[in-house]
Amino acid sequence: MPEGWAEKRVIISSDPAALAESVAPRFLSRVAKRIDEGKLAHISLTGGSMGAAVLAAAARNPRAARIDWSRVHFWWSDERFVPLGHAERNDRQARDAFLDVVEIPAENIHATLGSDDGADLDTAAAAYADELARFPGAEGAWPSFDVCFLGVGPDGHIASLFPDRSEIQITDRSVVAVRDSPKPPPERITMTRPVINSSKRVWLVLAGADKAAALGLALAGASYASVPAAGAKGRKRTTFFVDEAAAAQVPPDLIDREY
Question: pLDDT tens for residues 124-137?
Answer without folding.
Answer: 999 999 999 999 99
